[in-house]
């Protein structure tokens, strides 16, 4: 039985290209932490609750270097991963993180904290801590083109995500007649 949990892509490189694999006991948050907005009033039981916002998301990916056969090859792989995580000035880069279990969705992350490695001969195990200040996963924008050939004609626009996202509607007249009496109605 394989010890690989899932495949992932970080920036423009897959885990295989980075020479690492995600181990089964990694941590991926179900939802971002909440930032609760409450006020405690002295002399009153409980608190006033003004709701909450979503905070950042932290991924703790337990990984292992898999292609190294010697200590020297392991060190080369470690340096290559470090170079991938930072820009030319040595600052953590913003990278798109996506998993094979959810194709087409990505979260923008950057390295957080120290990146320590446990070395056992030519093997290296480490936890890649990736911080997402924007906690949401995004997908590619979908563009749908529909020809209106009747009046009235309904066109359904759906959002497959979990966050309310207004559509952008562009109307283009390819015909010779003038468009008149156009109305757009939101149905919930």
Q: Key terms for this structure?
A:
nine-stranded antiparallel sheet, 10% helix, two-stranded antiparallel ribbon, 11 strands, flat, Elongation Factor Tu (Ef-tu), domain 3
Concise structural overview:
The protein has two helices and eleven strands.
Q: How would you sum up this structure, described in words?
A:
By secondary structure, this protein is mostly beta strands. The protein has a single domain, classed as Elongation Factor Tu (Ef-tu), domain 3 (Beta Barrel), CATH 2.40.30.200. Helix content is 10%, strand content 31%. The strands form two sheets. Strands 1, 2, 3, 6, 7, 8, 9, 10 and 11 form a nine-stranded antiparallel sheet that branches. A hairpin with a 2-residue loop joins strand 1 and strand 2. The chain is flat, with a radius of gyration of 24 Å.
Structural class: mainly beta
Helical stretch tally = 2
Q: Please bin the fraction of helical residues.
A: 10-25%
Q: Which blocks of ≥5 consecutive residues have pLDDT under 50? A: none
CATH architecture: Beta Barrel
Secondary structure topology:
Blueprint: E1 8-10, E2 13-14, H1 15-18, E3 20-22, E4 34-39, E5 48-54, E6 57-65, H2 71-85, E7 95-99, E8 105-111, E9 117-120, E10 123-132, E11 138-139
Antiparallel strand pairs: 1-2, 1-7, 3-6, 4-5, 6-10, 7-8, 8-10, 8-11, 9-10
């Amino acid at each position: 039985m394989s010890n690989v949990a899932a495949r992932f892509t970080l920036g423009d490189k897959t885990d295989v290209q980075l020479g690492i694999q995600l181990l089964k006991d990694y941590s991926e948050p179900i939802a971002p932490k909440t930032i609760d907005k409450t006020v405690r009033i002295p002399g009153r039981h409980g608190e006033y609750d003004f709701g909450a916002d979503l905070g950042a998301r932290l991924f703790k990916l337990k990984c292992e270097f898999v292609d190294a056969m010697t200590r020297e090859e392991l060190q080369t792989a470690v340096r290559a991963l470090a170079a991938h995580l930072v820009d030319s000035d040595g600052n953590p880069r913003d990278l798109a993180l996506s998993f094979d279990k959810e194709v087409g969705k990505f979260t923008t992350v950057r390295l957080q904290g120290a990146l320590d490695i446990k070395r056992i001969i030519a093997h290296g195990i480490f936890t890649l801590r990736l911080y997402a200040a924007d906690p949401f996963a995004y997908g590619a924008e979908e563009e749908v083109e529909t020809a209106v050939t009747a009046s009235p004609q309904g066109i359904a626009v759906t959002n497959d995500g979990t966050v309310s996202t207004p559509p952008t509607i562009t109307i283009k007249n390819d015909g010779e007649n003038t468009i008149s009496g156009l109305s757009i109605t939101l149905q919930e």
